Each structure stands twice: as structure tokens, then as C-alpha cells.
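User: Hey, my collaborator sent me this sequence without any context and asked if I could get a structure. I don't really work with proteins. Can you help?
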Amino acid sequence: MLFVLAFGLFFYLTRVVFREHSQVFDNWGFAQMDALRAAAPGLTWWVFKLTFFGSVLFFVPASLLVPLVLYRRGYGRYAVELLLSMGEGWRLMNC
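Assistant: No problem. I've predicted the 3D structure and written it out in C-alpha cell form, which is a compact way to encode the shape of the chain:
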């Protein structure tokens, strides 16, 4: 049931944002973040540190180190599967 509700909410938001070209949702989100930033200015430093884990500077080294660690710990099959899945994902996105 939760999946169906999330699915419906996703398609509603997709329709509002992309089909109707509404910026109401964006403006509301930015206003909420501006209010939070004004209420807790020290939070910005923590947010920058947290968003590092979603950046290319983190994901590229992590995607190279995780298969290496798996292989060295004796999980060679999983390391190969992970490398193959990353390679196929790269191929699908770039070819």
C-alpha cells in the first residue's frame, strides 16, 4: 500500500513540475531552506560536509576502492559482479 501511495505521489509531482511547468513547489522548497538557513546558520557547514558523500570526489574513489576491498577480503565474485555492473551502467549512460 505504501508503494502505491509513493508511486501516486511521484507521478503527481512529476505532472505538476514537468507538465504544468509549475514553480510553486520549487519556490516553496527554496523558501523553507532559506528559513532554515536563517534560523540555524551554523547548519550550513554540516550540510556541505554531508553533501560531499554525494559528489564525484567521493563516488569515483569509492567505486574503485570498494571492489578492491571486497577482493582482498575474499569476496572476489562480488567484486567482479560490482565492477561489471558499474561498467555496464557506464556503458548505458555513455554509449
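In plain terms: The chain is about 85% helix and 0% strand. You can pass these C-alpha cells on to your collaborator as they are.
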